[in-house]
Amino acid sequence: MEEKIRAFCSWSGGKESVLSFYRAKMAGIHIVCLLNMISEDGKYSCSHGVGSKLLRLQAEAIEVPIVQRNTTWETYEEEFKKVISGFKEREIRTGVFGDIDIQEHRDWVERICGEIGLNAIVPLWKVEREKLIEEFIDLGFRAIIVATQADLLGQEWLGREIDKRLVEEIKATGNIDLCGEKGEYHTLVYDGPIFKKPVEFMMGGKRLKDRHWFLELLF
């Protein structure tokens, strides 16, 4: 019997991370752990500004361990390499990433993994945007918008459910990437096929920081 590939999944808690996890799992890859880079003070995820404790609750709901590494943007690459070097010692030889088509992002993950001696898998690469978001919805994943780029999407978008109505509204704007690939918006997934139970939370206040709106989630 062929041994399963053991992998970590680069993790933001958003829809692309979740869908890449799902696709990798369906392809027979064993996701050993999630990797989430968090702020230097340990409070928030670097990518989406989601509370680090909430992401730990999300990992518990999926029943896959999460590894969180404190970093600054200046030390991000150094810290990322340190933590995946440790994965290699645990016989984890592959990283799963949720990029869609930004080449510089793929170049970065392939270079970093390559320098450590790991493979990089990008399950969503070059899949058409509408197909991806429809797949996400049709599979039964549940997610809300937790951050937006303020000059493109106002605070009223925070807390909106990712559903087919929202997809049509994003398309109607004419200037927003449907999946938010360029950072126009970010999501938190709280239920779906890879979850053993939903993540329980309540919506809190909204804050504006560095030209982005963020939704506080309480639990």
What is the assigned CATH homologous superfamily of the largest domain?
HUPs
Low-confidence stretches are none
Strand content is 25-35%
- Helix/strand/pairing class, anyone? alpha/beta
Order of helices and strands: EHEHEHEHEHEHEEE
Question: Major β-sheet, in short?
Answer: 5 strands, parallel
Query: Which CATH class of the largest domain applies here?
Result: Alpha Beta
- Please report the total strand number as a whole number: 9
Terminal Cα span: 43 Å
Tally the helices.
Answer: 6
Provide the residue-averaged pLDDT: 95
Q: Order of strands side by side in the largest beta sheet?
A: 3-2-1-4-5
Helical percentage: 25-40%
Could you name the CATH topology of the largest domain?
Rossmann fold
Kindly give the count of domains: 2
Task: Please outline the helices and strands.
Blueprint (H helix, E strand, L loop, with lengths): L5 E5 L4 H12 L3 E9 L13 H11 L3 E5 L5 H14 L4 E3 L6 H14 L2 E3 L7 H10 L3 E8 L14 H10 L11 E7 L10 E8 L2 E7 L1
Parallel strand pairs: 1-2, 1-4, 2-3, 4-5
Antiparallel strand pairs: 6-7, 6-9, 8-9
